[in-house]
Amino acid sequence: MHSTKVASKSRMSHLNKFSVGDAYNWSFMRSLARLFFSLIVPIILARILSPNEFGLMAMSAVFIGIGSLISDLGTGDALIQRQSRSQALESTIFWLNLTIATIFAAILFATASVISGVYNNTIVGDIIQFMSIMFLFQSLSIVQVSLMKKKKDFKSIAIAEVFSQVISSIFAITLALNDFGVWSLVAFALTKSLLYVLAIWFFSDWMPSWVFKYNELKNVINFSINLTYVKFLNYIERNADKFIVGFYQGANVLGVYSRSYSTFSSSMKFINGFYNPVFYSVIVEAQNDRDKLKKALLESYQLLLFIFIPISLIFIFLSNELVLTIFGEQWIEMAPMLPIFGYILLFKPLNKLNVEMFKAVSKVNIMSNIWSFFTPLFVIGFLIGNEFYGSLGVVYAYLFVSLLLFFTTSRSIFKLLKITKKNVINKFTNHIARGFLVAACMILYKYSFTYHIDNVYVGFVFMGNVIIILLFYYLLQIFLPIATQNWAYCELKQRLQK
User: Considering its fold, how many domains does the chain have in total?
Assistant: First the structure.
């Protein structure tokens, strides 16, 4: 009994070792590294490889992602959401995840030839067979990472991720320069996954026991099943577009589309990647205090709008310059798509916060109902858009349905937390007004001066315009009586710490 108490006290002291501020800082550094390696490294590879090779990888990734989703089963979030810990439960979840990952890897390996027949491309099947082993790697770190997040040890996660990204990036670029083509992308994914698992095991103080108790799973099974169902629907929403474009238009067009989507999602993942995990870990602790949850959500809305509005404006007004400067002329077909993704960037990150809030307050059933309706709507929209306007029509469909989804999830969350229209208007008005002012000035600037985009000067033109957008946007913070980023961040942190 005494030893149990000592262990409990030791565990609690370990949990308290990491503050909310430290969690944000390390999570930010992790996301910064992730942004660099998920954006800069693909840009380097895009200069070496063709859109067709990226398209082949995107075709394979549609099915590989399903395995990654199933190998988790929502158990990681369930461990974070639970207030208490149990070695028996954690070990049971570990062996369950490993078993399911092994089974699904075997199934995908065996059916790879069938999948390649769908795309009429044998290389896709070969890629899938190699990538199937990645499920095993991912399942081995789910419990450890979840426990690290629960105690806000984002330092270890950040170091593990940076380590894996650095080594795998160097390896992939070396292979690409030596004409390994699409296999350099495969090597990048596999080595990153393996090295990440090894690093997590090195830093983790948890080891699985040789125990499997089904009774322990009853505590999390309902939460996990509902969450997995929602994640599966969400996965279809995020990947049906790529499957449709790849199936109907081939690897080359899909390569252009997937790189446009990745450029948009990388900027979003940068912020959401460091903010959302900490946001979720903290609001779980306040899940029974609706006032704290309401304040945290609205302050988070405000902060993310502050960050994403200028990024969105760059996508909207500088798409041609962005593509030519960063990717080169072979990717110029990305340019018409990026402005549409720029509009999506204004509300998509906010919807991610809504999802985290649903999970934190154990309202996964509401998420399930919403995504059950919207997932078929996304697929139908993608099919209609592709039929009439090709890949560009798919992007328009993504914008329209995503906007409807955001309004629906926000309405549910506002009703749940008793957030009034007045609360929302007070938080959003200044940001929206500021965004319109910058947009109006950019329109006047862009169309008052005509210039020929020459490859020699395009980089300078692009960077100059980016500086103008950012400078004007942030100068408004000084001259308009609204919250600055620092205020929003500090205020949010103080409220959550209380």
Answer: 2
